[in-house]
Design brief:
Shape: globular
Largest sheet: 6 strands, antiparallel
Number of domains: 3
CATH topology of the largest domain: Jelly Rolls
CATH architecture of the largest domain: Sandwich
Helix content: 25-40%
Order of helices and strands: HHHHHHHHHHHEEEEEHEEEEEEE
Strand content: 15-25%
Number of strands: 12
Strand order of the largest sheet: 4-1-6-11-8-9
CATH class of the largest domain: Mainly Beta
């Protein structure tokens, strides 16, 4: 009788595990444009049979899933908690998952939000440890705590010290601006342009033709070779030359309508040099609402063929890449399309280079 019961329990547990695996596999396999959704929907009812012990596994599944899979995994965890109650979240395992930086940053963020949903005080006790976290959204929580603490300090010198520390740790523009504004009010102004490492001095050339948006893929002379500054160039309306252009915008925005005028169906190139003390892995951070391409040392890093979707934002696109020791050539192609609505007149970009944590890297003078 005992043997029969043991076999029954084993078979039942094994069947549950296999069923749960169907859900896990479906979450990992879900893809864009509805790929894999049918399998996931078919097996979704199995989530109702899951327990709190399945939550740590579901979090780890998020390490393997894409953004769509993450959403499904998060929904599954919330469904489990709805069934078993908030107290069903395994806190120790969730905290361990958050602290383990080998897990994906987005997955750790989800785990933190779940912990905050279930036990806000426990979640808040972790925040100060995020100050150097590689996951930007967790780091942001720690910086926000620093800013709040600095705001509550009465002694001026202590407040200045606290804001300066927060400024050094901040990566998001709004937090940097907040700390900078507070320091300014305390009589300690900060050059935010320099602090964030924006490249403000460039050589620009144009306009080149972008009729019917065809210029994006057209290879014009500034894209050819490494000595393009010395070459003669023919633009949309004849001979064009490189000219110096810089910006005083505090967030490094270069308004290309200034050197070339408010014209449409055109493109231009912007060139700058960056001296690095050594070979290093970095991030190139660019913001633009126009179509653009970026080359570093004649190698194409990224291209975005899209126009006027939203506003230009600092660090709108973050691209991993490399600097070599010595002089590095930076070439940006920025395209303007044919639209004439008021919100399509912007022809602009901003650019900076940071380390992999988001700390600005400055060129060697």
């Amino acid at each position: 009788m005992k043997n029969s019961l043991s076999i029954f329990v084993f078979v039942t547990l094994n069947s549950c595990l296999m069923a749960n695996n169907d859900v896990y596999d479906a979450i990992i396999q879900v893809g864009p444009k509805g790929a894999g959704n049918e399998k996931l929907v078919k097996n979704w009812h199995l989530v109702d049979s899951m327990s709190s012990s399945d939550i740590p596994r579901m979090l780890k599944i998020m390490n393997q899933a894409n953004n769509l899979g993450d959403n499904w995994a998060r929904a599954a965890i919330l469904q489990i908690l709805k069934n078993v109650g908030k107290e069903g979240l395994p806190k120790d395992e969730t905290i361990a998952f958050i602290k383990d930086q080998n897990n994906q940053g987005s997955s750790r963020r989800t785990a933190y939000e779940l912990l905050d949903y279930v036990s806000p005080q426990v979640a808040q006790s972790l925040v100060s440890a995020f100050i150097d976290d590689p996951e930007p959204t967790l780091r942001r929580e720690a910086v926000e705590l620093l800013l709040t603490q600095a705001n509550n300090l009465v002694i001026k010198e202590q407040a200045i010290e606290a804001y300066e520390y927060a400024l050094g740790k901040a990566r998001d523009v709004d937090q940097i601006e907040s700390a900078s504004k507070s320091l300014d009010e305390l009589g300690k102004p900060i050059n935010i342009t320099e602090r964030m490492g924006f490249l403000t001095s460039w050589q620009v050339i144009g306009p080149f033709d972008n009729s019917s948006r065809g210029g994006f893929n057209e290879i014009y002379s500034p894209e050819i070779g490494s000595d393009f500054l010395k070459k003669a160039h023919t633009g949309k309306n004849g001979s064009v030359q490189w000219q110096t252009f810089s910006t005083t915008d505090r967030l490094g925005l270069l308004d290309l309508n200034q050197p070339f005028g408010h014209i449409k169906e055109v493109l231009c190139y912007a060139y700058s040099e960056f001296e690095s003390s050594l070979d290093k892995r970095v991030q190139f951070r660019i913001g633009s609402k126009n179509a653009w391409k970026l080359w570093i040392n004649q190698e194409l890093v990224f291209a975005r063929d899209e126009y006027h979707r939203g506003a230009t934002r600092v660090d709108q696109f973050i691209l991993d890449g490399n600097l070599k020791k010595g002089k590095n050539q930076i070439l940006v192609k920025v395209c303007q399309n044919e639209q004439t609505e008021s919100w399509t007149k912007q022809w602009e970009f901003c650019f900076r280079i940071t380390d992999l944590s988001g700390s600005p890297i400055k060129t060697i003078n």
